[in-house]
Amino acid sequence: MTPLNGFTSDANNTLPLYVLDRDGFAAWNAQQPAAVQAWLAAQQFTATHTSVALLPGADGIAGAVLGVGDHADAYAYAHAPFALPAGTTWKVANPLDPISATNLQLGWGLGSYRFARYRKPLRAPAQLLASPSQEVLDVVTACLRVRDWVNTPTEDMGPQQLEDAARELVNAHGGALEVIAGDELLELNFPTIHAVGRASHRAPRLIVLRWGKEDAPHLALVGKGVCFDTGGLDLKPADGMRNMKKDMGGAAHALALAGLVMAQQLPVRLTLIVPAVENAVGPDAFRPGEVITTRKGITVEIDNTDAEGRLILCDALTYASEQQPETIIDFATLTGAARIALGPDLPALFSNNDELANQWLQAGDATRDPLWRMPLWRPYLRYLNSGIADLANSGSRMAGSVTAALYLERFINEGQVWAHLDVYAWNDGERPGRPAGGEALALRSAWAMLKARYA
Predict the structure, then answer these.
(1) Do 75 and 91 sit in the same domain of this protein?
(2) Which of 132, 162, 197 is the last residue in one of the domains?
(3) Same domain for 143 and 128?
């Protein structure tokens, strides 16, 4: 994994960093020497969001002002590590309340990231003199794990590597790991996972991690692990296939959240379930028009082989429901329709339980790690009608994210508390603190929600 950079405990040669919003800057600036005021005025610096101004001194840089917008947003500070000069170390010089100080550390850790597996970063981030809490370190680590896993090309991040990632969590925190792979999926009744993954040279598998005390509340996390999605025989065009290494982003979120739950010793009994496949094209690829009898016994007609994520998830969710957990949460890079509706930064939340949904939405507001609830509008089940089976895996272009969620809901037992997050897991371009590539979305808010629900 990419090391967690950006923090130092070495207090030598630190420079003062003033962390200010526009209102705070006006008061601070009024107390500065005339030369400093003139310097900042010449740059028209007013401490707007994601701005930085270096302060001159006799020997070079005397300090800096970091402009922030919303102090409760970790990303308000995340521009700092690469906006400030490489090789510099900074100490916060003005008082910050505990929430702002924590978010500064979160943002600094997130903003210091560059994916370094195949190419050395062009420069190192500036360092912050800080001793983050273990929780801050664990949260940042979880987010960076998602970025690393999603950024890694499929040849180095296939079903086996997802299994390895789960095994690393068990080795670090305890628990037990079970893996059902290849034709054993058929023997143990996981037919849709097998069907989607059978054409690849790498065996499909179901990864199941169990951790925690038997008498604790039971939480099940499920993540879509399509390590590459060609679209199958309904082949994607080149531009649609280009970044499909990220189609395991749901699994990355579930694995990272599981690691956070385990590292922070949340008092739950955790079951993590990841169906891991590669949706490849080959002589054994599943075909449009086939009918598969799922683990739940519901027959599904394959309308489109590019709607494969819901196929592997339906058997995984059935298995999760069989464990009778208190709560099931699944993460999936499931539909382009969710991105059209809400854009890349706002994951679509679907839930059959208002309390769970509201807890997550409130956590999203508090952490500034947002998501947006979408409706499980059951009349739209008509778009999944099949003429020869109980259900089709796809259908109309209408309400694509809603119909995908409705499909998944059919495999949740009645009365079971469930939430589904349709997440992009990706930054399309460079923004302050958000490098292009893999991204953890609604992961920090998921942790805040679970902590409030179970701690």
Answers:
(1) yes
(2) 132
(3) no
Cα Rg for the chain, rounded, in angstroms? 24
Q: What is the pLDDT of residues 216-234, one digit of tens each?
A: 999 999 999 999 999 999 9
Same-domain status, 95 and 190: no
Please tell me the pTM assigned to this model: 0.97
**d(Cα 36, Cα 44) in Å, to the nearest integer?**
12
Q: Are residues 158 and 278 in the same domain?
A: yes
List the one residue out of 52, 50, 244, 227 whose CA is nearest residue 156: 227
Looking at residue 358, which CATH number applies to its domain? Answer: 3.40.630.10
Q: ∠184-189-192 over CA atoms, to 5°? A: 95
Q: Are residues 116 and 164 in the same domain?
A: no
Quick check: helix, strand or coil at residue 345?
coil
User: Which pLDDT tens digit goes with each residue over 83-93?
Assistant: 999 999 999 99
The structure tokens listed for 314 are 């339906």
Beta strand 291-293 with 372-373 is: unpaired
Which tens digits make up the pLDDT trace of 151-179?
999 999 999 999 999 999 999 999 999 99
- Residues 128 and 172 reside in one and the same domain: no
pLDDT for 4: 85
Average pLDDT, the chain: 97
352 CA to centre of own chain: 21
- Return the active site residues: 236, 310
**Which DSSP state fits 380?**
G
